[in-house]
Amino acid sequence: DVSLFFGMSGAGKTTLSADPQRRLIGDDEHGWSADGIFNIEGGCYAKVINLTPEAKPYIFEAIRFGTVLENVVFDAQTYDVDFTDGSLSDNARAAYPIRYMRNAEVPCVGTHPKNIIMLVCDGFGVLPPVSRLTTEQAMYHFVSGYSLKVGRSDSGEWEPQASFSACFGSGFLVWHPYKYAGMLAERMTAHGTVAWLVNTGWTGGPMGVGRRIGLELSQAIVDAVHSGELASAECETMGVFNLRVPVACSGVPPEMMLPERTWEDPQAFQQTLEHLGWLFHRNFRKFADGAGMVSPSLAASIAAAGPVVAHRLSAREAEALYRRGRGFTM
């Protein structure tokens, strides 16, 4: 019963894969062969800012002699690390051999995955905490590789911005992203793999207005995927992105499952949702023809699996939303 995570840095791959109820094949750099999943790098690379043994016990205890720490502050006499000190960088990191993890599966190999979980950190607060994807939607979101980037507005304030990295790793691609998306779809179909989109970002509003989805809630969602609960759950279709969203999940407040219920301003939610959909659409234009890597009909099906947007917000509309405390970047 293997699950495969996709996601950019900060989406939660390392944390959610350090699950005491499951064995760890690896937190990054995997291959999917004819025999199953295997890990390439043989280690983990964890964010450790504000790390505590209570929140992440397996990662905390993996930090021992032989671990490489980056961007951390420590006592020059005792060498004790202060994980709460972000004066050097919020991107404090620990790199350690996978055998340091209590739940490591060594050798790091597994069977074909039953579930694929695409982790996205949505800074706009409009994507649901979990949705079930069709094969075409899985290809679309795999090619899109959406995540959060934080930047400054013209007024100098920090605000969420959309970031896209094809196949969640555009800098490492040799072929066109559709080549990899086609390979992914073939393996999903051959092995009955189900794909999920899990938002570990914000709810109730964008970053700075809403709140981050708690780790315990994301873990409850992943647990419900593994148990099969969400596979049989009743779903509602969310507009614009046409995502099938389970209406209930053990351990998650029901009102959080559909993000529009967590926003105080329904109009602001809908406009922000459509704006994010337009950003997806704009990014995907360069991939829409398939570049000959898939048939024209499949390329059209993948493009159609993305968001359907009525119109792009004007600069004036975007500025109006920003002034109301629902800011985002065009």
UniProtKB/TrEMBL annotation:
CC terms in the record's Gene Ontology section: cytosol
Alphabetized GO MF terms: ATP binding; kinase activity; phosphoenolpyruvate carboxykinase (ATP) activity
InterPro entries according to UniProt: PEP_carboxykinase_ATP (IPR001272), PEP_carboxykinase_C (IPR013035), PEPCK_ATP_CS (IPR015994)
Source superkingdom: Eukaryota
Keyword annotations from UniProtKB, A to Z: Kinase, Pyruvate, Transferase
GO biological-process terms attached to the record: gluconeogenesis
Pfam families: PEPCK_ATP (PF01293)
Name of this chain's protein: Phosphoenolpyruvate carboxykinase (ATP)
Source organism of this protein record: Tetraselmis sp. GSL018
Lineage: Eukaryota, Viridiplantae, Chlorophyta, core chlorophytes, Chlorodendrophyceae
